[in-house]
Amino acid sequence: MARKPKEILRPRADIAALRAYDPEHHRVRVNLSANENPYDLPAELKAAILQVEQVPFNRYPDPGALELRRAIGSNYGLGIDGIAVGNGGDELILALLLAYGGAGRTVVSFEPTFVMYRILSTVTGTACVAIERGPDFGLPGGAADSVKAAAGDIVFICSPNNPTGNTVSNEALVAMLTDFSGLVVVDEAYQEFAGESAVSLLNDFPNLAVLRTFSKAFSLAGLRVGYLLADPEIIANILKAKLPYNVNALSQAAAAALMRRAGALGGVIEEIRGERDRVFEAIDKMPGLTAYPSEANFIFVRVAGDGPALWRDLLSEGILVRNLGQTEGLENCLRVTVGRPDENDVLIETLEKRGRGGDDQNR
Ligand SMILES: Cc1ncc(COP(=O)(O)O)c(C=O)c1O
């Protein structure tokens, strides 16, 4: 009879010490936690882009994702050799770190920011230096010099920044890119809700990569498609590091068809931007809550008091927002995704009711 070994191989120490990414999934009536688009695609649009009969299930998907890359390319006026697609933007962050990170390489990020930069740096054995953002979460003065002083090889700049919602100007990006031999990755997962984009800098800077996703403004979070725009040299190396059939055939076809109809999403994006401003003003007026201006589809909120308690109260009312309490310095902060008008009304009414029930609960 087979005998169980007394001990089995342990993971690397840095993985053992890592706290796993926890999206805190709960079934609720109002989910404002994952920065998704609150609107699914209309049924006709879904039917038009998801042509199940035309996608062979017995064959592997196109490993080059040519049709999807062509659709993205024609949207941006770029050749397919300047585009990589991934199983969500997350996979492209991983592929980039596999190709350019690893032992002896250093990632620099400006904290607080998207947690996957740190997690995937650890997973790929890449050192990670965190530089603190300024008081309103903008890049600190002399950010480009700090990156050089930290001997950074790869810099992640999230714009608009998750979780704080503010952007980094192209002028600041140019300062970072100039005379820098490392890579600057500008994560524009939420750019469609904002203004300026770093895409216009791609021609001038071969050390720039811009990350985008279909998960947010494009309402395709469930299909998992992201893309990276960069110099063909960077793309060629990322394609070596990614898995061969990383984006499934249905997702490739649907994302390509949706990209060709990108104009159809404008109305929803406009509505979300309008709702963002309404939710911001409503929350910011509430005693004990400070809302930070946002160019994304979420709002960062500082609670003068017990933030996790407010999070629990909202959850008990069936409203899920993101509790940032586990992040150092954000112990009493929440991130609220902008939902549909009716969902935002529920959030605002619940917060107002709670404020009236004892103003000092959330001070
Ligand atoms: C800043 C940022 N970048 C990238 C991603 C990855 O998105 P996805 O893997 O769904 O494309 C997210 C998702 O929340 C994000 O917030």
Describe the structure.
The protein has 363 residues and is of the alpha/beta class. The protein has 12 helices and 12 strands. It has helices at residues 13-16, 43-49, 66-76, 89-100, 116-123, 143-149, 170-177, 232-241, 249-260, 266-285, 307-316, 341-356, and strands at residues 30-32, 83-86, 106-111, 127-132, 154-158, 183-187, 208-213, 226-230, 289-291, 298-303, 319-323, 333-337. The strands form 2 sheets. The chain has a 7-stranded mixed β-sheet, with helices on both faces. Strands 1-11-12-10-9 form a 5-stranded mixed β-sheet, with helices on both faces. β5, α7 (170-177) and β6 (183-187) form a beta-alpha-beta unit. α2 (43-49) crosses α9 (249-260), α3 packs parallel to α9 (249-260) and α4 (89-100) crosses α5 (116-123). The longest helix is centred in the C-terminal third of the chain and has 20 residues, at 266-285. The radius of gyration is 21 Å and the shape is globular. The chain starts with 12 loop residues before the first helix and ends in a 7-residue tail after the last helix. The structure holds pyridoxal-5'-phosphate (PLP). The site of pyridoxal-5'-phosphate has 13 residues, from α4.
